[in-house]
Specification:
This protein has six helices and 14 strands. By secondary structure, it is of the alpha+beta class. It has two domains: 122 residues; 125 residues, no CATH class. Helix 1 packs across helix 4 and helix 2 packs across helix 4. The longest helix has 22 residues.
C-alpha cells in the first residue's frame, strides 16, 4: 500500500514502483535512488519545493550562517509581538571584506567618513548633500529601522550591518530536503518521477545495449508529458478563480 502523508508520497516508494515495473532487481536500488534525488531537485525547484523558515543565531562578527540545504533565499528579518517577520532591507553597500574573520567590523570601518548616529531613531545621518548630513538608508514606515543585510553567496553567509541588535534572525528560503530525512514528492508528481527514472536509467546506456535512440527519445517524451500533467493537477485552475480573474480584468479594462 502506498505510504502517503497529507498529499505527499515517499521518494522511496517511487523508486520501488519503478523497480517493479521495469522488472529489475533490488541491487539497482541505490543507483536509482541517486537518479530520483536528481529528479527531485529539478522538479522541486521548479514546482513543489516549499518555503521553509529558519531561526538562526547571529555570530559575533554580525554574520549568520546560511543552512546548507538553502537553495534560494526569500526573506531575512526579525520577529515582533504578533508572530510576524519584520524584513530587513537588502543593502548592497555592506562590505563583504573579511566577513569570515572575527574582527570583520574593525577591518571594514573607516572613521575618515564621520557618521552622525541618533540612537533614538536608529538612523545613520552620514550622507553629505552639499549643505548638511541626511539619512542615507531611509526609515521604513510603521516602526523603527531594524537593520539591513547583504548575502555573501560564495561563503554562505548573511552579513548584517554593525548596529543590528538582535541575537538571531529569521531566514525564509526554498530549501531542499536535508540529508538523512525522508524525501517526499507530491502525489501528483509520483508518475512523473517514475517516468524520469525510466528515462535517465536508460539514457546513458551504450550502443551495445538493447535501447535504441528512438526508445530513449520516447522515454524522454513520456517524462515531459507526465510532468506537464503533474503540473496541471498540482495547481489546477478552478472555475471560481477563473470567474474572479475575468471580473478583475473587466474592471481594469473599464478604468483604462
Amino acid at each position: 500500500m502506498a505510504i502517503q502523508k497529507q498529499g505527499w508520497s515517499l521518494l522511496d516508494e517511487c523508486v520501488n514502483l519503478y523497480i517493479d515495473r521495469s522488472e529489475q532487481s533490488n541491487h539497482k536500488y541505490f543507483k536509482l535512488w541517486n537518479i530520483a534525488c536528481s529528479g527531485c531537485e529539478q522538479m522541486g525547484i521548479n514546482f513543489f519545493y516549499q518555503i521553509q523558515t529558519f531561526k538562526l543565531p547571529v555570530n559575533s562578527n554580525f554574520t549568520v550562517n546560511i543552512p546548507d540545504n538553502c537553495i534560494m533565499w526569500a526573506k531575512v528579518g526579525v520577529g515582533n509581538s504578533c508572530s510576524e517577520i519584520i524584513p530587513l532591507n537588502y543593502n548592497n553597500k555592506i562590505n563583504l571584506f573579511a566577513d569570515l574573520q572575527t574582527n570583520t567590523i574593525a577591518q571594514t570601518q573607516d572613521n575618515s567618513l564621520f557618521n552622525f548616529y541618533f540612537a533614538n531613531s536608529g538612523i545613520f545621518y552620514n550622507y553629505w548633500n552639499g549643505e548638511t548630513f541626511e539619512n542615507l538608508y531611509g526609515l521604513p514606515s510603521g516602526g523603527p529601522f531594524v537593520g539591513s543585510f547583504k548575502i555573501d553567496t560564495a561563503n554562505g553567509l548573511i552579513v548584517l550591518n554593525d548596529f543590528f541588535q538582535y541575537p538571531y534572525c529569521y531566514l525564509e528560503c526554498i530549501a531542499s530536503p536535508a540529508e538523512g530525512t525522508e524525501i517526499r514528492v507530491p502525489i501528483q508528481f509520483k508518475e512523473a518521477m517514475i517516468a524520469f527514472l525510466g528515462w535517465q536509467d536508460n539514457y546513458y546506456k551504450g550502443s551495445t545495449s538493447h535501447m535504441q535512440r528512438g526508445d530513449k527519445e520516447s522515454l524522454k517524451h513520456n517524462f515531459y508529458n507526465e510532468r506537464r500533467l503533474a503540473r496541471a493537477a498540482y495547481k489546477p485552475l478552478y472555475l471560481e478563480e477563473a470567474y474572479e480573474w475575468n471580473l478583475r480584468n473587466q474592471r481594469l479594462t473599464v478604468k483604462a
